[in-house]
Amino acid sequence: MAKIEETVLPGMGIRYAFLTEAGKRVGVLHHRTGRRELLLYDRDDPDMCAEVLALEDDDARTLIEVLGGSRVAEQLSTIQRIEGLAIDWLPLRDDTPYAGRTIGDTAARTRTGTSIVAVVRGADAHPAPGPDFGLEAGDTLVVVGTPRGIEDLSVLLRTG
Fold it and tell me: Which of 47, 94, 119, 145 is the most exposed place for a label (fewest CB within 10 A)?
């Protein structure tokens, strides 16, 4: 699996980028507003985007499904949009200090106001995990909170 670079862009969101096996740089920008963009970088200048593709919510869910993502995305599409509430998928990187620890150890809700509502591990979804649920590197956490709270949780999961 390629190493994912995660960059917090203050006031904007989080950018995830990686190199494909063919050596092309690809990224996804998760805006604090919930908007997502697929970033395709210039081969000669890896800091310059050759193309930016805005993804509406349905586009992002379709892409996740096509790439083999969990059915959790499909189920969450039925949730009514509420102003100030965001849903996001946060990957647990290999270097997270929470690998081998529990959801309770993160104190996510207390520290960020964000709730972990599911954990996706491989092809399996674990809805409504309790505080004793063990986390593993490579898990994807489905979280609900304010855009700022989700951004704070993303940083917490990286740094502890």
Answer: 47
